[in-house]
Amino acid sequence: MTFSQSTDFTIQDVKFESQGVILSGSILTPKKVSAAVVIVHGSDPVKREMKFAKRLASEGIAVLTYDKRGVGESGGIYVGPSVGTNNIDTANLNLLSQDASQAVNTFQTYLKDKKTPIGLVGFSQAGWIIPIAASKNPKIKFMVLFSCPTITTLEQLRFQFYTNGNNNFWENHTETDAREHIKNDPDKYQFVETDPKKSLNILSIPGIWLFGEKDIQIPVKLCIDQLNTMKAQGKPFEYSLFPSLGHNTSSGDIIVPFDISVQWIKEKALSIKK
């Protein structure tokens, strides 16, 4: 177990078991901990998210970040390709949700104050993984979702194939075009879809979604409509929309969504502790 220290936080390497494989990660512990989060990956073969974790830790948030299954020092098999069937097939999303859940269980054993609320913070594909994990693990107290879908996996693929990586998509298409396409387009792949709303509908923990209006991976306004429906039913869900941003609302040079997420995490942790 390696242990290193910065001025604001310590970094400790950890290993934990999930579904028969050993996953490797790092725990970043600030001197004064206000909340704790486990980082859940997007669809790519991602190692532990140290840059993002250090930003959180320097704000007083303890973090466990781990190499995705089959990537870096973690065992198991990474399921790809990034776009297609097996990456977002129900079996894989359920498996990744169990990894996130086990990370939370492990993290709690390392926290000095066992009452520190632990949440999940994730990107993109994590929008399907986090609600599944949270609906099955009561230790998960809140969710922060950067550019995460509330639509089904098949609906997301229909939209992604329609935009086809065109950054100027929204200059040439209307919201109505996009919704018609998502509703009616024949599927290129056949697999059992995952609908995050099934898990979200049984959750009562707070969540915040951070969206970029120019996103061409997920149809943001449709997701916002779905969140508003759930909010109207009393769900403690919030969102922020950034008109100038695309899918990457969490990258290092984008300050505002990150700052909003940090402030939100601290406020929710405080009210959960009370």
Overview of this protein structure:
The structure is a single chain. The chain is an alpha/beta fold and 274 residues long. The protein has helices at 50-57, 90-110, 126-136, 153-163, 169-172, 175-184, 196-200, 220-232, 256-273; strands spanning 3-5, 9-18, 21-30, 35-40, 61-66, 118-123, 140-146, 207-212, 237-242. Strands 1-2-3-5-4-6-7-8-9 form a 9-stranded mixed β-sheet, sandwiched between helices. Helix 2 (90-110) packs across helix 3 and helix 4 (153-163) packs across helix 6. The mean pLDDT is 94.
Keywords:
single chain, 274 residues, alpha/beta, 22% strand
Topology:
Blueprint: E1 3-5, E2 9-18, E3 21-30, E4 35-40, H1 50-57, E5 61-66, H2 90-110, E6 118-123, H3 126-136, E7 140-146, H4 153-163, H5 169-172, H6 175-184, H7 196-200, E8 207-212, H8 220-232, E9 237-242, H9 256-273
Parallel strand pairs: 4-5, 4-6, 6-7, 7-8, 8-9
Antiparallel strand pairs: 1-2, 2-3, 3-5
Helix pairs in contact: 2-3, 4-6
